[in-house]
Amino acid sequence: MEKKKSALDLERERERSYCELCGKMENLLKCGRCRSSFYCSKEHQKQHWGTHKLICKEADTAAAAQQGPKQTPEPALSAREGKEPEGSKLKNRSAEQPEPSGERMRGFITNAEGPEEVMDKSSGGVGGNNNAKPNGQTRPSPQKLATDYIIPLMNKNGICVVDNFLGAETGVCILQDVKALHQTGRFTDGQLVSQKSDSTKDIRGDKITWIDGQEKGCEKIRFLMSRMDDLVRHCNGKLGNYTINGRTKAMVACYPGNGTGYVRHVDNPNGDGRCVTCIYYLNKDWDVKEQGGLLRIFPEGKTQFADIEPKFDRLLLFWSDRRNPHEVQPAHSTRYAITVWYFDADERAKAKEKYLTGAGEKGVKVELNKPSDPS
To answer: Where's the Fe2OG dioxygenase domain (predicted)?
Structure first.
């Protein structure tokens, strides 16, 4: 006889629950047969059924035996405890959801004025042409930044933030490229693991385009990607148990500033190969109290959460899998960011075998054993 779950067990179950297809963590429904998998909609359950039916338990083995062998139908979805009413809009969820329990994480952001002086607040930055600080000292190289800061913090917390990554001058040039790209009309609604859904806008409200760096007018975006690659190259083999051998194209994203955001979700909920999420922010003089757009990460197994403001020239890295559920809170001003996901070689190969190519459509091979093109 199945033991009845306590209120604490149910709460823990909710904290671990994700849509098996898109990673969303809000408004979930439970599979009516196995009661161990969750989906954000009937549509996503149907799209995932080809995979899920292989492990879904029969609700009534006796009835199945009487019916004889035949294709297992899709089980009905049942409401999960604490489910919000359908139609709840993203822009209203910030007010609906209570402040999470626990305290904010500390020690994952560089502090040029603290004991861990990794970056300086002047221009030039890592990978830039100006490696000198105002007082004549040299800036840390990408290798030193990776070895002394990123690797230890990623392996400890799974989150790392580098401020003033490229320097103000370079950051402004990248922002100009992004704004010009936005004006071309190439941005489209962000999708969920490349699956089209009528409910997408209730989950994420950003506009995106994919860039490989070779496009005309995207030279500075290409430079950013090369500097990200250099940093990861110096980290490779030392970030968890991963062997990184490639990445996605760059996803350039814009939240239009009308209260849009992205509900709590996981980047890689089903093993598509992505292991590290790398985000570069481009928002000058951003005031999160007035403009919103905060990224909040809920590291698995911790009572703390991490709040990352989308500040100009800030680089954020974190594990892409279920260890880091996160949300983008509603933004009230235009908010720009560029995201690249890096692939673990082993998981990526297995994902291709299973046809988990949602994120893989944008994947590219990257040589991480030599410096990137400095152009």
So the answer is: 243-344
Q: How many residues does the chain have?
A: 375
Q: Let me know: does 239 contact 147? Beta carbons within 8 Å.
A: no
Q: Where are the alpha helices (DSSP H) in 219-338?
A: 219-235, 288-291
Cβ neighbour number for residue 362 with a 10 Å cutoff = 18
Q: What is the pTM of this model?
A: 0.68
Tens of pLDDT, residue by residue over 57-97, are: 554 444 455 555 555 556 666 554 433 333 333 333 333 33
Helices 219-235, 168-183: inter-axial angle, 10-degree rounding: 120
Q: Which pair of structure tokens corresponds to residue 360?
A: 């893989």
Helix (H) or strand (E) holding 168: helix 168-183
E strands of the chain, at which residues? 29-31, 38-39, 77-79, 159-162, 188-189, 207-211, 244-248, 250-255, 260-265, 274-281, 295-297, 306-308, 314-319, 326-331, 335-344, 363-365
Sequence-separated (6 or more) residues with CB below 8 Å from residue 198: 43
Contact indicator for 360, 268 with CB cutoff of 8 Å: no
**Are the CB atoms for 50 and 74 separated by under 8 Å?**
no
Q: Please check whether residue 281 is in contact with residue 140, taking contact to mean a CB–CB distance below 8 angstroms.
A: no
Token code pair at residue 374: 């400095």
pLDDT for 301 equals 80
Sheet holding 306-308: strands in order across?
260-265, 326-331, 295-297, 306-308
> From CA 110, how far away is CA 129, in angstroms rounded?
21
